Amino acid sequence: ELVLQLAVQGRLVQQDRTEEPATVLLNRIRVARAALPANRRSGDETDTTEINEEATHFATPPGWVWTSLGYVQVFTNGYAFKSEDYQPSGVGIIRMGELGTNGEIDERNMKYVSNNIAQSLPNTFRVKPGDLLMGMSGSIGKLAINRSDKTYLLNQRVGRLEPILIEKAFLHVFLKTVEQHYLRISFGMAIKNLSTKQINETPFPLPPLAEQKRIVAKV
Predict the structure, then answer these.
(1) Which residues are within 8 A (CB) of 79 and not within 5 positions of it... i.e. 6 or more apart?
(2) Euclidean distance between CA atoms 34 and 93, whole angstroms
(3) Tens digits of per-residue pLDDT, 147-168?
(4) Which of 111, 187, 189 shows the shortest CA–CA distance to 153?
(5) How far apart are CA 8 and CA 73, in angstroms?
(6) How far apart are CA 99 and CA 144, in angstroms?
(7) Cα dist from 94 to 32, 69, 125, whole Å
(8) Contacts for 6 with CB less than 8 Å, ≥ 6 apart
(9) What is the pLDDT of residues 36-84, one digit of tens each?
């Protein structure tokens, strides 16, 4: 836990002033975001690096910049499948229960739908190999990666995070550090829930891309 905290605070590896700073990376992310279809952009286009300093928990090192989580990834909430469509085999659905305790997909109680139903859904609801997933209800902030060679379907209240020009492994490291932040948001709820908006508004400390790779290797 301490290693992860040091990693996202820029205290695990040394900064290199010769590397492209995060402000330049953020400009490239802005261009990449603008090229996405409107329905694939997270958050509001006017929300760039404007993060209230009171919402941040530490000062970033030189070369880093605060932005919002929604600006550096595309977040997709899953599809509301009907229980009457479940069948013994077919295309697997990733629900909260499939986010395994080992950080991988747990198929033991998986539900399935027919190939016809799967093919009728937009590609945005497909969970491909390597995709990063997060729970939005109950065990909020719970993470898993599809480390198999299978393609699944994304159920409602499970989100997929697709990074934009940043290291997926660094995003994963960061998400491991913000569970307590999400628990504070949902404090007092009978059933703990997170909205897409709350996830996208999470302050995100963005390092230079080269430093992201060095941090991941060090972790």
Answers:
(1) 121, 125, 153, 154, 155, 156
(2) 31
(3) 999 999 999 999 999 999 999 9
(4) 111
(5) 17
(6) 5
(7) 28, 23, 10
(8) 12
(9) 988 776 655 444 555 655 567 789 999 999 999 999 999 999 999 999 9
Among 217, 204, 210, 209, which residue's Cα sits nearest to residue 8? 204
pLDDT on residue 46: 44
Cα→Cα distances 93→75, 128, 136, 156, Å: 18, 12, 16, 10
Transcribe the chain into DSSP letters.
-HHHHHHHTT-SS---TTSPPHHHHHHHHHHHHHTS-GGG--S-TT-SS---GGG-SSPPPTT-EEEEGGGSEEEEE-B---GGG-BSSSEEEE-GGGB-TTSBB--TT-EEE-HHHHHHS-GGGEE-TT-EEEE-BSSTT-EEE--SS--EEEBTTEEEEEESSS-HHHHHHHHHT-HHHHHHHTTT-SS-B--HHHHHTSEEEE--HHHHHHHHHH-
Unique residue bearing structure tokens 């909020």: 140
